[in-house]
Amino acid sequence: MYVAVKGGEAAIANAHRLLADRRRGDRSVPALRLDQIVEQLALGVDRVMSEGSLYDRKLAALAVVQARGDLIEAIFLLRAYRTTLPRFGYTNPVDTGAMQLERRVSATYKDLPGGQVLGPTFDYTHRLLDPQLAAGAEIEDPAQRPAEAEAMPRVSSILAHEGLIEADGDMPLDYVPGDITREPLQFPMARDIRLQALSRGDEGFLLALGYSTQRGYARNHPFVGEVRIGEVELELDVPELPFTVPLGSIRVTECQMVNQFKGSAKAPPQFTRGYGLVFGQSERKAMAMALCDRALRATELGEDVIAAAQDEEFVISHSDNVQATGFVEHLKLPHYVDFQAELDLVRRMRAEYQDRENQDKAEEKREAAE
Fold first, then answer.
1. Which of 18, 78, 89, 234 is most buried, judged by most C-beta within 10 A?
2. CB neighbours of 219 closer than 8 A, spacing ≥ 6?
3. Which of 36, 93, 71, 48 is nearest to 281 (CA)?
4. Can you give the pTM of this predicted structure?
């Protein structure tokens, strides 16, 4: 057994060396710098930061390089690194209404205070490969740049002014939000816990669930109240100081879905909300998160739970791509003893089956002879 272990260690070390070699690729091609990845693969970096629960562009870019572009592996790396960091406090709640916007669109109102701000988006591009990019052509700077991003009121505030949408709700002053990075998940969840889990959930999984709600598997009829992308300020209360300390700003994407609600004995007919907030520019993820958030509020709003997207335990337990990856990929590890046990069982079952077949054939022959 000791020899087998030693041989396994050597094989693993060789696999690591081969991985490093393949990661580097052709030595005649210049190695990627982290700043290139941060600037030119920004949306991939943003996804790694969001699902890795750590806002650091350079570390996310490093994880992307180390993972050879496998974003789930990069998320795993970043989340593992995150566990080594000390926790010295919690920032104050972020006011996304004061976001310095670079993109802001709404599907509910054509004319908005502040207007629609298209910003950087693929929405209006033709899905055609650009040979100029392959040739390394430089793209000219936009002729017009906004002098300074500005804050704009939320669309939900317009509906709230008429009482047509549910209120945001006020949390008790002594309420302590949960922290899924420090506390084990327990069902049923408070909404703040659930939103944390959705925020770092796998984009593809949430997208599929959100799509299912639109196709009738939850009776979810949404409108995009607003998608906004921009910078928000982070502030920290320090007990020794009489004022809040600004820590800097981060880019986030926020989505508020507006959904129908026919009312109940406790609430009049009104619109309800689905909410999504993620690091960086990732509106598809924020929208999918908002769709799932609204679907998961079915019990809270007295609606029938009839679809997978409304099942909290199903959604949250399977949305974490790090957990899912570990459970699926562990199947590649040695299961020799388990398989031999299964193999012996199948052989015994086949032998018993063959014995019965032989007995049945012998019985048929005897009956035929008689």
1. 78
2. 303, 306
3. 48
4. 0.89
